[in-house]
Fold each of these.
Amino acid sequence: MSLVEEKYYERIDAMTPKERVARSCEIFQWARQAIARQIVAEQGPVSDERLKWLVALRLYGAEPGVRKMIERMLDGVPN
Protein backbone atom coordinates (compact mmCIF):
# COMPACT_ATOMS: atom_id res chain seq x y z
CA MET A 1 0.00 0.00 0.00
CA SER A 2 1.35 3.42 -0.93
CA LEU A 3 1.78 6.25 1.56
CA VAL A 4 -1.11 8.12 -0.05
CA GLU A 5 -3.43 5.10 0.29
CA GLU A 6 -2.31 4.60 3.86
CA LYS A 7 -3.10 8.21 4.79
CA TYR A 8 -6.42 8.02 2.95
CA TYR A 9 -7.54 4.95 4.90
CA GLU A 10 -6.36 6.48 8.17
CA ARG A 11 -8.58 9.48 7.54
CA ILE A 12 -11.53 7.33 6.48
CA ASP A 13 -11.12 5.13 9.56
CA ALA A 14 -11.10 8.24 11.78
CA MET A 15 -14.51 9.37 10.46
CA THR A 16 -17.68 8.83 12.42
CA PRO A 17 -20.47 6.86 10.71
CA LYS A 18 -22.36 10.13 10.20
CA GLU A 19 -19.32 11.68 8.48
CA ARG A 20 -18.92 8.61 6.25
CA VAL A 21 -22.55 8.79 5.15
CA ALA A 22 -22.24 12.52 4.48
CA ARG A 23 -19.09 11.92 2.44
CA SER A 24 -20.82 9.20 0.42
CA CYS A 25 -23.76 11.52 -0.28
CA GLU A 26 -21.39 14.28 -1.41
CA ILE A 27 -19.55 11.91 -3.76
CA PHE A 28 -22.84 10.62 -5.18
CA GLN A 29 -24.06 14.20 -5.74
CA TRP A 30 -20.76 15.05 -7.45
CA ALA A 31 -21.13 12.02 -9.74
CA ARG A 32 -24.72 12.96 -10.66
CA GLN A 33 -23.62 16.51 -11.47
CA ALA A 34 -20.77 15.22 -13.63
CA ILE A 35 -23.16 12.96 -15.54
CA ALA A 36 -25.61 15.84 -15.97
CA ARG A 37 -22.86 18.05 -17.43
CA GLN A 38 -21.90 15.27 -19.81
CA ILE A 39 -25.50 14.85 -20.99
CA VAL A 40 -25.91 18.59 -21.58
CA ALA A 41 -22.62 18.67 -23.48
CA GLU A 42 -23.81 15.82 -25.70
CA GLN A 43 -27.48 16.77 -26.16
CA GLY A 44 -27.63 20.49 -25.48
CA PRO A 45 -29.94 22.16 -22.99
CA VAL A 46 -32.82 20.09 -21.61
CA SER A 47 -35.37 20.78 -18.89
CA ASP A 48 -34.36 20.05 -15.30
CA GLU A 49 -37.00 17.31 -15.08
CA ARG A 50 -35.77 15.59 -18.23
CA LEU A 51 -32.14 15.92 -17.13
CA LYS A 52 -33.00 14.26 -13.82
CA TRP A 53 -34.40 11.22 -15.63
CA LEU A 54 -31.56 11.10 -18.18
CA VAL A 55 -29.07 11.02 -15.31
CA ALA A 56 -31.07 8.24 -13.66
CA LEU A 57 -31.04 6.33 -16.93
CA ARG A 58 -27.24 6.51 -17.05
CA LEU A 59 -26.93 5.44 -13.43
CA TYR A 60 -29.52 2.66 -13.32
CA GLY A 61 -30.24 1.82 -16.97
CA ALA A 62 -28.39 -1.48 -16.90
CA GLU A 63 -31.30 -2.99 -14.93
CA PRO A 64 -34.03 -3.81 -17.50
CA GLY A 65 -37.01 -3.21 -15.21
CA VAL A 66 -35.64 0.09 -13.97
CA ARG A 67 -34.74 1.13 -17.53
CA LYS A 68 -38.35 0.58 -18.65
CA MET A 69 -39.69 2.64 -15.75
CA ILE A 70 -37.29 5.51 -16.43
CA GLU A 71 -38.06 5.43 -20.15
CA ARG A 72 -41.80 5.65 -19.36
CA MET A 73 -41.10 8.67 -17.17
CA LEU A 74 -39.04 10.25 -19.95
CA ASP A 75 -41.91 9.76 -22.42
CA GLY A 76 -44.01 12.12 -20.32
CA VAL A 77 -41.39 14.82 -19.84
CA PRO A 78 -40.94 17.60 -22.43
CA ASN A 79 -37.48 18.70 -23.47
Amino acid sequence: METTFAHAATLWLEPGSDFRAPGGAVTVALCGSWSHGDRPCVWPHHTVVEQDGAQVMVRTVFRAGPEDEAEVRRLIEHALRDGRFVGPGGWESRWVTRASGPVDPGDDQALRTH
Protein backbone atom coordinates (compact mmCIF):
# COMPACT_ATOMS: atom_id res chain seq x y z
CA MET A 1 0.00 0.00 0.00
CA GLU A 2 1.42 3.38 -1.00
CA THR A 3 1.79 6.23 1.45
CA THR A 4 2.43 9.93 0.84
CA PHE A 5 5.77 11.25 2.09
CA ALA A 6 7.57 14.57 1.75
CA HIS A 7 11.18 15.70 1.67
CA ALA A 8 12.41 19.29 1.87
CA ALA A 9 15.76 21.00 1.39
CA THR A 10 17.28 24.46 1.62
CA LEU A 11 19.99 25.24 -0.92
CA TRP A 12 22.28 28.14 -1.81
CA LEU A 13 22.30 28.65 -5.55
CA GLU A 14 25.46 29.78 -7.35
CA PRO A 15 25.12 32.95 -9.46
CA GLY A 16 23.95 32.26 -13.01
CA SER A 17 22.25 29.00 -12.04
CA ASP A 18 18.64 28.15 -12.89
CA PHE A 19 16.63 27.91 -9.67
CA ARG A 20 14.57 25.09 -11.24
CA ALA A 21 17.63 22.86 -11.68
CA PRO A 22 17.40 21.11 -8.28
CA GLY A 23 13.83 20.08 -9.12
CA GLY A 24 15.05 18.72 -12.45
CA ALA A 25 17.77 16.79 -10.65
CA VAL A 26 15.16 15.20 -8.37
CA THR A 27 12.97 14.25 -11.36
CA VAL A 28 15.87 12.61 -13.19
CA ALA A 29 16.92 10.78 -10.01
CA LEU A 30 13.44 9.35 -9.46
CA CYS A 31 12.37 8.80 -13.08
CA GLY A 32 15.61 8.35 -15.00
CA SER A 33 14.79 11.12 -17.46
CA TRP A 34 12.80 14.30 -18.02
CA SER A 35 9.94 12.33 -19.54
CA HIS A 36 8.60 8.93 -18.63
CA GLY A 37 7.95 7.89 -22.22
CA ASP A 38 5.41 5.07 -22.29
CA ARG A 39 6.01 3.89 -18.75
CA PRO A 40 4.32 5.30 -15.64
CA CYS A 41 6.36 6.88 -12.88
CA VAL A 42 7.50 4.25 -10.35
CA TRP A 43 7.18 6.76 -7.49
CA PRO A 44 4.64 9.46 -8.39
CA HIS A 45 5.98 12.75 -7.12
CA HIS A 46 5.60 16.50 -7.31
CA THR A 47 8.45 18.93 -6.66
CA VAL A 48 8.02 22.61 -5.89
CA VAL A 49 11.02 24.94 -6.00
CA GLU A 50 10.84 28.46 -4.57
CA GLN A 51 13.62 31.02 -4.78
CA ASP A 52 14.43 33.86 -2.37
CA GLY A 53 17.59 35.48 -3.69
CA ALA A 54 20.39 32.91 -3.58
CA GLN A 55 18.37 30.67 -1.24
CA VAL A 56 16.20 27.99 -2.81
CA MET A 57 13.64 25.81 -1.04
CA VAL A 58 12.86 22.45 -2.62
CA ARG A 59 9.91 20.33 -1.50
CA THR A 60 9.17 16.94 -3.03
CA VAL A 61 6.00 15.06 -2.16
CA PHE A 62 6.01 11.43 -3.29
CA ARG A 63 4.01 8.22 -3.04
CA ALA A 64 5.73 4.96 -2.27
CA GLY A 65 5.30 1.80 -0.30
CA PRO A 66 6.85 1.97 3.17
CA GLU A 67 9.49 -0.51 1.98
CA ASP A 68 10.60 2.00 -0.72
CA GLU A 69 10.61 5.18 1.36
CA ALA A 70 14.31 4.95 2.31
CA GLU A 71 15.35 4.33 -1.31
CA VAL A 72 13.33 7.27 -2.64
CA ARG A 73 14.79 9.55 0.05
CA ARG A 74 18.30 8.30 -0.77
CA LEU A 75 17.79 9.17 -4.44
CA ILE A 76 16.45 12.63 -3.58
CA GLU A 77 19.31 13.27 -1.14
CA HIS A 78 21.91 12.18 -3.67
CA ALA A 79 20.42 14.40 -6.39
CA LEU A 80 20.39 17.43 -4.09
CA ARG A 81 23.74 16.83 -2.39
CA ASP A 82 25.45 16.37 -5.77
CA GLY A 83 24.96 20.12 -6.18
CA ARG A 84 25.11 20.11 -9.95
CA PHE A 85 22.68 19.64 -12.80
CA VAL A 86 22.91 20.13 -16.54
CA GLY A 87 19.56 21.04 -18.05
CA PRO A 88 18.24 19.98 -21.46
CA GLY A 89 19.80 23.01 -23.17
CA GLY A 90 23.23 22.14 -21.76
CA TRP A 91 23.12 24.92 -19.14
CA GLU A 92 24.89 23.87 -15.94
CA SER A 93 23.55 24.95 -12.56
CA ARG A 94 25.30 24.52 -9.22
CA TRP A 95 24.23 24.79 -5.60
CA VAL A 96 25.20 23.85 -2.05
CA THR A 97 22.70 21.93 0.07
CA ARG A 98 22.40 23.56 3.51
CA ALA A 99 19.70 21.32 5.02
CA SER A 100 17.68 18.37 3.77
CA GLY A 101 15.38 15.78 5.25
CA PRO A 102 11.90 14.39 5.83
CA VAL A 103 8.99 16.73 6.48
CA ASP A 104 5.29 16.25 7.09
CA PRO A 105 3.48 15.90 3.74
CA GLY A 106 0.48 17.70 5.16
CA ASP A 107 -2.62 17.67 2.99
CA ASP A 108 -0.75 18.03 -0.28
CA GLN A 109 -3.18 17.96 -3.21
CA ALA A 110 -0.48 17.79 -5.91
CA LEU A 111 -0.28 14.00 -6.16
CA ARG A 112 -4.01 13.58 -6.56
CA THR A 113 -3.70 14.78 -10.15
CA HIS A 114 -0.86 12.41 -11.16
Amino acid sequence: MASTSAIAKLFGMTERNVRYLAEQGVIEKAKRGKYPLAATIQKYIKYLRSKAFEKEVEFGEYDRERTLHEKAKRQKAELLLERMRNRLHWGEDVELVMTEMLVRFRNRILGIPTAIAPKLYRKSVPKIAEALKTELYSALTELSEYDPAMFVDKEYEVLYDEEEDDSTVPKNSEGGSPAS
Protein backbone atom coordinates (compact mmCIF):
# COMPACT_ATOMS: atom_id res chain seq x y z
CA MET A 1 0.00 0.00 0.00
CA ALA A 2 1.11 3.54 -0.79
CA SER A 3 -0.04 6.82 0.69
CA THR A 4 -1.63 9.68 -1.24
CA SER A 5 1.56 11.70 -0.98
CA ALA A 6 3.70 8.79 -2.23
CA ILE A 7 1.42 8.30 -5.25
CA ALA A 8 1.47 12.05 -5.90
CA LYS A 9 5.31 12.07 -5.90
CA LEU A 10 5.42 8.95 -8.06
CA PHE A 11 3.07 10.45 -10.70
CA GLY A 12 4.45 13.98 -10.41
CA MET A 13 1.19 15.62 -9.35
CA THR A 14 -0.50 17.06 -6.30
CA GLU A 15 -2.27 15.00 -3.66
CA ARG A 16 -5.48 16.72 -4.66
CA ASN A 17 -5.07 15.39 -8.24
CA VAL A 18 -4.50 11.89 -6.85
CA ARG A 19 -7.73 12.11 -4.83
CA TYR A 20 -9.58 13.43 -7.94
CA LEU A 21 -8.31 10.51 -10.05
CA ALA A 22 -9.50 8.11 -7.37
CA GLU A 23 -12.94 9.75 -7.29
CA GLN A 24 -13.17 9.44 -11.07
CA GLY A 25 -12.23 5.75 -10.89
CA VAL A 26 -9.01 6.27 -12.83
CA ILE A 27 -6.88 4.77 -10.06
CA GLU A 28 -7.78 2.25 -7.42
CA LYS A 29 -8.22 3.27 -3.80
CA ALA A 30 -8.12 0.61 -1.05
CA LYS A 31 -9.02 2.73 1.98
CA ARG A 32 -8.76 6.32 3.16
CA GLY A 33 -5.43 7.68 1.96
CA LYS A 34 -4.06 4.28 0.94
CA TYR A 35 -3.67 2.88 -2.58
CA PRO A 36 -2.52 -0.55 -3.78
CA LEU A 37 0.70 0.40 -5.54
CA ALA A 38 0.79 -2.11 -8.44
CA ALA A 39 -2.91 -1.83 -9.31
CA THR A 40 -2.79 1.99 -9.09
CA ILE A 41 0.21 2.22 -11.39
CA GLN A 42 -1.33 -0.20 -13.90
CA LYS A 43 -4.66 1.66 -13.99
CA TYR A 44 -2.91 5.03 -14.32
CA ILE A 45 -0.79 3.77 -17.24
CA LYS A 46 -3.93 2.42 -18.92
CA TYR A 47 -5.58 5.82 -18.40
CA LEU A 48 -2.59 7.65 -19.92
CA ARG A 49 -2.57 5.32 -22.92
CA SER A 50 -6.27 5.96 -23.55
CA LYS A 51 -5.64 9.71 -23.36
CA ALA A 52 -2.72 9.38 -25.77
CA PHE A 53 -4.95 7.45 -28.18
CA GLU A 54 -7.59 10.21 -28.00
CA LYS A 55 -4.92 12.82 -28.78
CA GLU A 56 -3.71 10.71 -31.69
CA VAL A 57 -7.24 10.50 -33.08
CA GLU A 58 -7.66 14.26 -32.70
CA PHE A 59 -4.29 14.82 -34.39
CA GLY A 60 -5.30 12.43 -37.19
CA GLU A 61 -8.50 14.42 -37.72
CA TYR A 62 -6.46 17.62 -37.92
CA ASP A 63 -4.21 16.07 -40.57
CA ARG A 64 -7.25 14.88 -42.52
CA GLU A 65 -8.88 18.32 -42.42
CA ARG A 66 -5.63 20.02 -43.38
CA THR A 67 -5.21 17.64 -46.30
CA LEU A 68 -8.76 18.36 -47.49
CA HIS A 69 -8.13 22.10 -47.16
CA GLU A 70 -4.90 21.92 -49.17
CA LYS A 71 -6.66 19.82 -51.84
CA ALA A 72 -9.42 22.45 -52.11
CA LYS A 73 -6.83 25.23 -52.41
CA ARG A 74 -5.04 23.31 -55.18
CA GLN A 75 -8.30 22.73 -57.06
CA LYS A 76 -9.17 26.42 -56.76
CA ALA A 77 -5.76 27.39 -58.14
CA GLU A 78 -6.16 24.92 -61.04
CA LEU A 79 -9.59 26.35 -61.89
CA LEU A 80 -8.23 29.90 -61.78
CA LEU A 81 -5.40 28.90 -64.11
CA GLU A 82 -7.84 27.29 -66.55
CA ARG A 83 -9.91 30.48 -66.46
CA MET A 84 -6.80 32.56 -67.17
CA ARG A 85 -6.00 30.33 -70.13
CA ASN A 86 -9.56 30.90 -71.40
CA ARG A 87 -10.42 27.21 -71.08
CA LEU A 88 -12.95 27.68 -68.29
CA HIS A 89 -15.77 30.21 -68.05
CA TRP A 90 -18.19 31.25 -65.33
CA GLY A 91 -21.68 29.90 -65.86
CA GLU A 92 -23.10 33.43 -65.79
CA ASP A 93 -20.76 34.48 -68.63
CA VAL A 94 -21.74 31.50 -70.78
CA GLU A 95 -25.42 32.15 -70.08
CA LEU A 96 -25.07 35.82 -71.03
CA VAL A 97 -23.23 35.12 -74.30
CA MET A 98 -25.54 32.26 -75.29
CA THR A 99 -28.66 34.28 -74.47
CA GLU A 100 -27.37 37.16 -76.56
CA MET A 101 -26.60 34.84 -79.49
CA LEU A 102 -29.99 33.15 -79.32
CA VAL A 103 -31.90 36.44 -79.04
CA ARG A 104 -30.08 37.75 -82.13
CA PHE A 105 -30.87 34.48 -83.95
CA ARG A 106 -34.54 34.63 -82.92
CA ASN A 107 -34.83 38.22 -84.12
CA ARG A 108 -33.13 37.34 -87.39
CA ILE A 109 -35.49 34.40 -88.00
CA LEU A 110 -38.57 36.42 -87.08
CA GLY A 111 -37.42 39.24 -89.36
CA ILE A 112 -37.12 37.04 -92.44
CA PRO A 113 -40.79 37.25 -93.52
CA THR A 114 -40.82 41.04 -93.32
CA ALA A 115 -37.49 41.37 -95.09
CA ILE A 116 -38.18 39.11 -98.08
CA ALA A 117 -41.97 39.38 -98.49
CA PRO A 118 -41.73 42.32 -100.92
CA LYS A 119 -39.09 40.48 -102.97
CA LEU A 120 -41.33 37.41 -103.26
CA TYR A 121 -44.45 39.19 -104.49
CA ARG A 122 -45.80 37.39 -107.56
CA LYS A 123 -42.96 34.84 -107.59
CA SER A 124 -43.46 31.14 -108.25
CA VAL A 125 -43.50 28.64 -105.39
CA PRO A 126 -40.06 27.23 -106.24
CA LYS A 127 -38.56 30.74 -106.27
CA ILE A 128 -40.23 31.54 -102.91
CA ALA A 129 -38.93 28.28 -101.44
CA GLU A 130 -35.41 28.96 -102.72
CA ALA A 131 -35.39 32.53 -101.34
CA LEU A 132 -36.65 31.32 -97.93
CA LYS A 133 -34.09 28.52 -97.91
CA THR A 134 -31.28 30.99 -98.69
CA GLU A 135 -32.33 33.35 -95.89
CA LEU A 136 -32.70 30.52 -93.36
CA TYR A 137 -29.29 29.06 -94.24
CA SER A 138 -27.77 32.52 -93.88
CA ALA A 139 -29.29 32.87 -90.38
CA LEU A 140 -28.15 29.38 -89.40
CA THR A 141 -24.64 30.08 -90.68
CA GLU A 142 -24.51 33.22 -88.56
CA LEU A 143 -25.56 31.17 -85.53
CA SER A 144 -22.88 28.56 -86.20
CA GLU A 145 -20.06 31.11 -86.30
CA TYR A 146 -18.71 30.59 -82.81
CA ASP A 147 -16.18 33.18 -81.71
CA PRO A 148 -14.15 32.28 -78.59
CA ALA A 149 -13.40 35.98 -78.13
CA MET A 150 -16.98 36.37 -76.95
CA PHE A 151 -15.97 34.55 -73.77
CA VAL A 152 -12.64 36.25 -73.11
CA ASP A 153 -12.62 37.80 -69.68
CA LYS A 154 -11.29 41.33 -69.78
CA GLU A 155 -9.83 40.75 -66.31
CA TYR A 156 -7.29 38.22 -67.63
CA GLU A 157 -5.09 37.97 -70.66
CA VAL A 158 -5.14 34.63 -72.42
CA LEU A 159 -1.96 32.62 -71.85
CA TYR A 160 -0.66 31.04 -75.01
CA ASP A 161 1.61 28.02 -75.42
CA GLU A 162 1.35 27.11 -71.72
CA GLU A 163 3.64 30.03 -70.87
CA GLU A 164 3.75 31.16 -67.28
CA ASP A 165 3.52 34.88 -66.86
CA ASP A 166 2.71 36.39 -63.48
CA SER A 167 1.80 39.68 -65.15
CA THR A 168 -1.47 38.09 -66.32
CA VAL A 169 -2.68 37.56 -62.76
CA PRO A 170 -4.78 40.52 -61.65
CA LYS A 171 -3.57 42.11 -58.44
CA ASN A 172 -5.93 42.68 -55.55
CA SER A 173 -5.85 45.75 -53.37
CA GLU A 174 -3.18 44.24 -51.12
CA GLY A 175 -0.92 43.57 -54.09
CA GLY A 176 -1.24 39.77 -54.03
CA SER A 177 -2.97 37.45 -56.43
CA PRO A 178 -6.63 36.50 -55.92
CA ALA A 179 -5.78 32.85 -55.25
CA SER A 180 -3.56 33.58 -52.26
Amino acid sequence: MEKDSVGNHYKEVDFEELEKLVEMQCTLEEIASFFDVHKDTISNRIKEQYDMDFSTYKALKGTKGRIHLRKLQWKSAEKGNTNMQIFLGKNMLDQSDKQEIKTEGDTTIKVSLLDEE
Protein backbone atom coordinates (compact mmCIF):
# COMPACT_ATOMS: atom_id res chain seq x y z
CA MET A 1 0.00 0.00 0.00
CA GLU A 2 1.24 3.49 -0.83
CA LYS A 3 2.04 5.96 1.89
CA ASP A 4 1.40 9.68 1.82
CA SER A 5 4.01 12.35 2.48
CA VAL A 6 3.86 11.93 6.27
CA GLY A 7 4.13 8.15 6.14
CA ASN A 8 0.47 7.29 6.68
CA HIS A 9 -1.25 4.73 4.49
CA TYR A 10 -2.68 6.46 1.44
CA LYS A 11 -6.47 6.20 1.40
CA GLU A 12 -8.24 6.20 -1.95
CA VAL A 13 -11.54 8.00 -2.34
CA ASP A 14 -14.24 6.91 -4.79
CA PHE A 15 -14.93 10.22 -6.54
CA GLU A 16 -18.21 9.01 -8.05
CA GLU A 17 -19.49 8.24 -4.54
CA LEU A 18 -18.02 11.50 -3.23
CA GLU A 19 -19.94 13.47 -5.85
CA LYS A 20 -23.21 11.75 -4.89
CA LEU A 21 -22.65 12.63 -1.23
CA VAL A 22 -21.91 16.26 -2.09
CA GLU A 23 -25.05 16.40 -4.26
CA MET A 24 -27.04 15.26 -1.20
CA GLN A 25 -25.55 18.25 0.69
CA CYS A 26 -23.47 16.12 3.07
CA THR A 27 -20.94 18.01 5.17
CA LEU A 28 -17.20 17.39 5.01
CA GLU A 29 -17.42 15.60 8.36
CA GLU A 30 -20.23 13.33 7.13
CA ILE A 31 -18.34 12.46 3.97
CA ALA A 32 -15.17 11.70 5.92
CA SER A 33 -17.18 9.46 8.25
CA PHE A 34 -18.73 7.66 5.27
CA PHE A 35 -15.27 6.87 3.86
CA ASP A 36 -13.88 6.19 7.36
CA VAL A 37 -11.10 8.75 6.94
CA HIS A 38 -10.17 12.09 8.47
CA LYS A 39 -11.79 15.15 6.89
CA ASP A 40 -8.32 16.36 5.83
CA THR A 41 -8.02 13.23 3.69
CA ILE A 42 -11.17 14.19 1.75
CA SER A 43 -9.93 17.76 1.35
CA ASN A 44 -6.51 16.52 0.18
CA ARG A 45 -7.98 14.10 -2.39
CA ILE A 46 -10.19 16.85 -3.82
CA LYS A 47 -7.18 19.14 -4.02
CA GLU A 48 -5.13 16.43 -5.78
CA GLN A 49 -7.90 15.45 -8.22
CA TYR A 50 -9.51 18.81 -9.01
CA ASP A 51 -7.05 21.47 -7.72
CA MET A 52 -9.69 23.14 -5.54
CA ASP A 53 -10.68 23.19 -1.89
CA PHE A 54 -13.72 21.37 -0.48
CA SER A 55 -15.95 24.44 -0.26
CA THR A 56 -15.34 25.30 -3.92
CA TYR A 57 -15.96 21.67 -4.93
CA LYS A 58 -19.18 21.57 -2.87
CA ALA A 59 -20.41 24.83 -4.37
CA LEU A 60 -19.79 23.43 -7.86
CA LYS A 61 -21.20 19.93 -7.37
CA GLY A 62 -23.83 20.60 -4.72
CA THR A 63 -25.92 22.62 -7.14
CA LYS A 64 -26.75 19.46 -9.08
CA GLY A 65 -28.37 17.93 -6.00
CA ARG A 66 -30.48 21.02 -5.34
CA ILE A 67 -31.65 21.01 -8.96
CA HIS A 68 -32.64 17.34 -8.67
CA LEU A 69 -34.58 18.00 -5.45
CA ARG A 70 -36.36 20.95 -7.05
CA LYS A 71 -37.36 18.69 -10.00
CA LEU A 72 -38.80 16.11 -7.61
CA GLN A 73 -40.75 18.76 -5.74
CA TRP A 74 -42.06 20.22 -8.98
CA LYS A 75 -43.18 16.80 -10.24
CA SER A 76 -44.92 16.14 -6.93
CA ALA A 77 -46.78 19.46 -7.20
CA GLU A 78 -47.77 18.70 -10.81
CA LYS A 79 -49.22 15.36 -9.69
CA GLY A 80 -51.56 17.24 -7.38
CA ASN A 81 -49.69 17.17 -4.06
CA THR A 82 -51.43 20.15 -2.44
CA ASN A 83 -48.86 20.48 0.35
CA MET A 84 -46.06 20.74 -2.21
CA GLN A 85 -48.05 23.27 -4.25
CA ILE A 86 -48.50 25.41 -1.12
CA PHE A 87 -44.82 25.03 -0.18
CA LEU A 88 -43.62 26.03 -3.65
CA GLY A 89 -46.10 28.91 -3.78
CA LYS A 90 -44.81 30.28 -0.50
CA ASN A 91 -41.15 29.80 -1.38
CA MET A 92 -41.08 30.59 -5.08
CA LEU A 93 -44.01 32.99 -5.48
CA ASP A 94 -43.77 34.76 -2.11
CA GLN A 95 -47.32 33.73 -1.24
CA SER A 96 -48.54 33.39 2.34
CA ASP A 97 -51.56 32.24 4.32
CA LYS A 98 -51.95 35.68 5.88
CA GLN A 99 -51.99 39.11 4.42
CA GLU A 100 -51.32 42.42 6.13
CA ILE A 101 -53.18 45.46 4.93
CA LYS A 102 -51.69 48.77 6.00
CA THR A 103 -54.03 51.68 6.39
CA GLU A 104 -53.32 55.33 6.95
CA GLY A 105 -51.87 55.91 10.36
CA ASP A 106 -50.47 53.18 12.58
CA THR A 107 -53.32 50.71 12.12
CA THR A 108 -52.51 47.30 10.61
CA ILE A 109 -55.26 44.84 9.73
CA LYS A 110 -54.34 41.16 9.50
CA VAL A 111 -56.49 39.01 7.26
CA SER A 112 -56.36 35.23 7.27
CA LEU A 113 -56.90 33.52 3.94
CA LEU A 114 -57.78 30.22 5.64
CA ASP A 115 -61.10 29.29 7.16
CA GLU A 116 -60.73 29.48 10.92
CA GLU A 117 -63.91 27.92 12.23
